[in-house]
Amino acid sequence: MPKWREMNDLSSAPRPQRQRKPDWIRVKAPVSKGYQQTRALMRELSLNTVCEEAACPNIGECWTKKHATVMILGDVCTRACAFCNVKTGMPRVVDPFEPGHVATAAARLGLEHIVVTSVDRDDLPDGGAGQFVKVIEALRRETPATTIEILTPDFRGKMRPAVEAIVAAGPDVYNHNLETVPRLYPTIRPGARYYASLRLLEEVKAHNPAMFTKSGVMLGLGEARLEVHQVMDDMRSADVDFLTMGQYLQPTPKHARVEEFVSPKAFDAYGAIARAKGFLQVASSPLTRSSYHAGEDFALMKAAREARLAQRQA
After folding, report:
1. What pLDDT is attached to residue 228?
2. pLDDT tens digits for range 140-176
3. CATH classification of the domain holding 48
4. Strand pairing partners for 64?
5. Is residue 242 part of a domain?
6. Which residue of 4, 150, 307, 313 is 20 to 30 Å from 299, comparing CA positions?
7. What is the pLDDT of residue 7?
């Protein structure tokens, strides 16, 4: 059996032992001046980033370019997903100065596009939706030319009012990741429900059909090829515009292990299938993450929508 398979299948092949990372997943340690400057700014403004908390492999490249994905509502999550490196426990009170600090960071970094995400805050009455709204409002005041992409949790039990409030605040892109295939939710994402996340994406479009929606999945957790295709179909049924697919990497030995390293060729094949299914934009590679090259991809997605509308009117 090869060390990794070109594409997943539904066979009952033995589970592989823990593998070494292949060359295509290796990245250089961040050492640039730009990286240090971005890190210093995040510390100065007491901001958390998913880049650090989730141990993103692209942090060196992104922070060198002074692109950082801000993680609001603290650095402690009320969930304990098997893939995530963010701390789990009882979060602190919400920082009232956080929205202003996010806007200051965006202005000082000169961001044309910003991605804002958060931990899960099941302890809050609104799940943290109000803080997303305040961040969007602060960004619109301080850096009105910056386009805003938000990546929210599922707001378990509070989804409809939370989504309604955030959509009304007017972000440019609403992202919510499905993360993996339905079969793996009980072990990989036990605090969430696949179809609830799918409904959230549908709810965004129900409130604003013109708003761009985005979702992503990790590969290498033991999913089968046809299961990934079904997730794509489910996303398209919810009218999701942008799909991201990247390689899952095990943050620590306590987290879910990598079942396979999916090859770049296989990612290309998945990407081609996704484009054929009608997504406006697809990012599919081992190092793809939700916010990786988000600004460039947003521009491509807008152009794709305009081209599609022009074609329909022709």
Report:
1. 98
2. 999 999 999 999 999 999 999 999 999 999 999 999 9
3. 3.20.20.70
4. none
5. yes
6. 313
7. 40
Specify if 183 maps to a domain: yes
Query: In b/e form, how buried is each residue of 28-47, taking b as 16+ CB within 10 angstroms?
Result: eebeeebbeebbebbeebeb
The answer to whether residue 161 is domain-embedded is yes
- Decide if 15 is inside a domain: no
202: CB partners within 8 A, 6+ apart: 238, 239
- The list of the chain residues with pLDDT below 50 reads 1-16
pLDDT of 291 reads 79
Q: Count other Cβ atoms within 10 Å, centred on residue 305.
A: 15
Give me the number of domains the chain comprises.
1
- For 194, the token pair is 């696949």
**What residues contact residue 11 under an 8 Å CB cut-off, 6+ apart?**
none
Instruction: Give Cα separations from 170 to 67, 154, 259, 276, 297 (angstroms).
Output: 22, 18, 39, 29, 19
Residue 202: burial class (beta carbons within 10 Å; 0-12, 13-18, 19+): middle
- If 0-12 CB within 10 Å is exposed, 13-18 middle and 19+ buried, where does residue 259 land? buried
Query: What pLDDT, on the 0 to 100 scale, is given for residue 4?
Result: 39
pLDDT value of residue 52: 61
pLDDT for residue 9: 43
Q: Does pTM top 0.85 for this prediction?
A: yes
Where in the sequence is the domain holding 296, given as residue range(s)?
43-313
